[in-house]
């Protein structure tokens, strides 16, 4: 099998998000020759949605990954621009550390760790097929490598798939959609078909992201400030990794009656309520449409304005993901106090 493989590794990891980076580092540290394949080396650990780590339930996972030798916790500590302890009014068992990280600095920090890790190689390519021997029916099916879009083959004793949203991904804005792994990046094709040929059942999950607005266009001075209150708390258990950088504030606004009415009037234009899309989404991250429909009795919902980095002009509008058409999104944003004159840099 080595004869037709461009290279051979003990482990191949497909995907360069949080999970892929941790898997590749763990395998390499165990002494396995490891390759991490990703569609774009510059977008490793990019945090395309909200560049935040931790929060309820998730902070416990970050602590556990750190205890197992992972790096997400120490990187989040090093590149946090705001830290808060959630559920602090309750017992310590449910305290949840949450860090807003600097998106660019976090990604560069992870890329540096990967590049410096012995036994680990990085490859930019789209993996489209799995090399196998035997058969599932015969009980001897075995994966021994991957094939890329342009036909190169790479051998491996084990293949780890951490592909995230990219497998035949599509993005929807209103009633329009396009193939994409995430905004501005191509979807991964081929690998879904390969998995189905192996007898695996595939499904589609839905997630959402809010618009980004230009920080200088928002009247932050008129909004409630939310400063960091946990800069001296850390995800990592290693005191040598306890680093705190500059901290900046997030801000809070709220939806208004005008927000709710605009959403109700245009629900039929969203992918879910308009019937264009039928998919399951995470309970913990509802769209603003879902909030208005499910909690019709509520007059207002809290919205958090979170910087994406120390030097980034973008604010992430936490709690305001939407499927409304782009033409309506700016109008919707401008119903929020402080955002009456905001500039939308990227639609939800």
Automatic annotation (TrEMBL):
<dbReference type="GO" id="GO:0030488">
    <property type="term" value="P:tRNA methylation"/>
</dbReference>
<dbReference type="InterPro" id="IPR020595">
    <property type="entry name" value="MnmG-rel_CS"/>
</dbReference>
<dbReference type="InterPro" id="IPR002218">
    <property type="entry name" value="MnmG-rel"/>
</dbReference>
<keyword id="KW-0285">Flavoprotein</keyword>
<dbReference type="InterPro" id="IPR036188">
    <property type="entry name" value="FAD/NAD-bd_sf"/>
</dbReference>
<keyword id="KW-0963">Cytoplasm</keyword>
<dbReference type="GO" id="GO:0002098">
    <property type="term" value="P:tRNA wobble uridine modification"/>
</dbReference>
<protein>
    <recommendedName>
        <fullName>tRNA uridine 5-carboxymethylaminomethyl modification enzyme MnmG</fullName>
    </recommendedName>
</protein>
<dbReference type="Pfam" id="PF01134">
    <property type="entry name" value="GIDA"/>
</dbReference>
<keyword id="KW-0819">tRNA processing</keyword>
<dbReference type="InterPro" id="IPR040131">
    <property type="entry name" value="MnmG_N"/>
</dbReference>
<comment type="similarity">
    <text>Belongs to the MnmG family.</text>
</comment>
<comment type="subunit">
    <text>Homodimer. Heterotetramer of two MnmE and two MnmG subunits.</text>
</comment>
<feature type="domain" description="MnmG N-terminal">
    <location>
        <begin position="10"/>
        <end position="348"/>
    </location>
</feature>
<keyword id="KW-0274">FAD</keyword>
<keyword id="KW-0520">NAD</keyword>
<dbReference type="GO" id="GO:0050660">
    <property type="term" value="F:flavin adenine dinucleotide binding"/>
</dbReference>
């Amino acid at each position: 099998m080595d004869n037709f493989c461009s290279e051979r590794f003990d482990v191949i990891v497909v995907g360069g998000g949080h999970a892929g980076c941790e898997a590749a580092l763990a395998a390499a540290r165990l002494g396995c020759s490891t390759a991490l394949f990703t569609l774009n080396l510059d977008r490793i650990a990019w945090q395309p949605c909200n560049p935040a780590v931790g929060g309820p339930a998730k902070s416990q996972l970050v602590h556990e990954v750190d205890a197992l030798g992972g790096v997400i916790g120490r990187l989040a500590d090093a590149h946090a621009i705001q830290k808060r302890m959630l559920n602090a009014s309750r017992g310590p068992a449910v305290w949840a550390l949450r860090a807003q990280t600097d998106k660019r600095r976090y990604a560069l920090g992870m890329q540096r760790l990967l590049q410096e890790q012995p036994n680990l190689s990085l490859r930019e390519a789209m993996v489209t097929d799995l090399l196998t021997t035997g058969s599932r029916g015969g009980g001897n099916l075995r994966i021994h490598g991957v094939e890329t879009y342009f036909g190169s083959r790479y051998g491996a004793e084990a293949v780890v798939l951490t592909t995230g949203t990219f497998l035949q991904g599509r993005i929807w804005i209103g009633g329009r959609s396009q193939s994409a792994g995430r905004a501005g990046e191509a979807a991964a094709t081929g690998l879904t078909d390969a998995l189905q040929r192996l007898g695996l059942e595939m499904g589609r999950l839905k997630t959402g992201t809010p618009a980004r607005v230009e920080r200088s266009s928002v009247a932050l001075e008129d909004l409630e400030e939310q400063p960091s209150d946990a800069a001296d708390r850390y995800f990592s258990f290693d005191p040598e990794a306890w680093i705190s950088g500059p901290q900046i504030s997030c801000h809070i606004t709220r939806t208004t009656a005008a927000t709710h009415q605009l959403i109700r009037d245009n629900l039929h234009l969203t992918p879910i309520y308009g019937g264009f899309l039928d998919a399951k989404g995470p309970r913990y991250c509802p769209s603003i449409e879902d909030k208005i429909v499910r909690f019709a009795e509520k007059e207002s919902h809290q919205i958090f304005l979170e910087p994406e980095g120390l030097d980034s002009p973008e604010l992430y509008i936490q709690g305001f993901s939407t499927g409304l058409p782009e033409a309506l999104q700016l109008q919707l944003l401008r119903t929020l106090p402080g955002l009456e004159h905001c500039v939308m840099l990227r639609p939800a």
